[in-house]
Amino acid sequence: MTPRLRSGLLALLTTTTITLGAPAAAYGAPPAAPSIAGHSLPPYQTWIADVTAVTSAAQRYLADRLPDSSVKPAIVLDIDNTALETTYRPGLVSPATAPVLALARQAAADGAAVFFVTARPQVLGWQTAVNLRGAGYPVADAYLRPWFNTQPDAGFKTATRKQIEDLGYRIVANIGNNPSDLSGGFAERTFKLPDYDGQLI
């Protein structure tokens, strides 16, 4: 990469990060409920309320579980419709899901590393990293599906959590909105956000 191209990319990333740092309110009024395959999802406010019910329980658990100096604690978050409001606010970038962001920041403040595990392909790696950091997340690392990996989502995500624990971390909480985010072990507790019978993937 030439110095000129490198400086141009850095300038773009810096500008994008500043833009992404805006709160969700900067994206406009709460959107109408999207329609997926002919089915309407609940309104945005209902989804946020349902997410908050789960993250509140997770926050209470983490308040008791952390800090813990006897282990290297970590939490794992899914990205789409968990960490980011992907379906309700679609586009090149999405704002943080506010209750999940608060949970991640609490965990980080109490000494936990925050990892992201997603079935997004690696080609979206830079965009995803910029979006997460710009939205305000502490990011220890983000694991995307490797090139040509055709494992089912659950198998890939389970293997990735094992990989994180093999680095010496104890995953104290795993949060996602689909069963494939949570199955397979390698987490002390799991917290499932709404997927509305598989409509919100």
TrEMBL record:
Signal sequence span is: 1-24
Q: Which organism is it from?
A: Krasilnikovia cinnamomea
Keywords of this protein's UniProt record, alphabetized?
Signal
**Top-level taxonomic group:** Bacteria
Q: Which Gene3D superfamilies match?
A: HAD superfamily/HAD-like
Q: Which InterPro entries match?
A: Acid_phosphat_B-like, HAD-like_sf, HAD_sf
What PANTHER family does this protein map onto?
ACID PHOSPHATASE-LIKE PROTEIN
Q: Which Pfam families has this protein been placed in?
A: Acid_phosphat_B (PF03767)
Its protein name is Putative acid phosphatase of HAD superfamily subfamily IIIB
